[in-house]
Amino acid sequence: MTDVLTAAAFVPSPPLLVPELNGLSAAETDDLRAAILDAGRSLSGTVEWIVVGAEQVEQTVPSTACGTFSGFGADVPVRLGPDADGEPDPGLPLPALVAGWIRDRTAPHVRVTTHVVATDSDNSHCSELGRSLRARLDGDDLPRALLVVADGAATLTAKAPGAYDPRSGDVEAALADALATGDPVALGALDADLCSQIRLDGRAAWDVLAGAFPAPPRSAQVTYCAAPYGVGYHVGIWTP
């Protein structure tokens, strides 16, 4: 059987990408928002997105869920699939909300299933999850995509959410290089303890992406790489 993972995309998770949450400053994130929506459109030929993110508590959010960004300041509803119904849940994890927001605007026919891994998960657990997700993605002839919703370090400047940590620059550069060159070994080699100290909370999700690629991708493309608010944001696509 040939692989049917069509692509693995990665986007950051800032709520500020939603214009309604950004007010008069929405134009400041136009380039980021455009890159994220372009990544969603690139996955629109699939039937399901398997989303991976990292938060404090590990959980799975099904494609029947509805959510809202009301907890972040504006009641912007999202749906995670064409069969999603019911009252929007303001407690959905941010990676699911962001994925749903992208889905609603670029691929409303797609089902989105979100796997949230705990930020303090060790590398072996994340790698195993990546391998199991890849097996699911390649398990039949339905076109599916992997979407990683994760940030880089949150300590890159003095105004960053975690303030400035001089160690974060080198780690962020290593992350950016691994994504740009399509290097799953380097991506999976990020030091978990150091990442925790420099607030690179997406490390566990990046580990899952590395685990999903037993071999380097055929192509790797990064369409956005910057830290406009002192947090590393990366948008791009790996093609198996």
What does this structure look like?
The protein is 32% helix and 22% strand. It has 240 residues and is of the alpha/beta class. A seven-stranded mixed β-sheet has the order 3-6-2-7-1-9-8, with helices on both faces. It has a two-stranded antiparallel ribbon with strand order 4-5. A hairpin with a 6-residue loop joins strand 8 (219-226) and strand 9 (233-239). The longest helix has 15 residues, at 123-137. The chain starts with a strand and ends with a strand. The model has no long low-confidence stretch (mean pLDDT 95).
Tell me the quaternary state.
single chain
Taking the alpha carbons of the first and last residues, their distance comes to 14 Å
Count of runs of 4 or more consecutive helical residues:
8
Low-confidence stretches: none
Mean pLDDT: 95
Please give the CATH architecture: 3-Layer(aba) Sandwich
Gross morphology? globular
Strand order of the largest sheet: 3-6-2-7-1-9-8
Which secondary-structure class do the elements indicate?
alpha/beta
Strand content: 15-25%
Number of strands: 9
Largest sheet: 7 strands, mixed
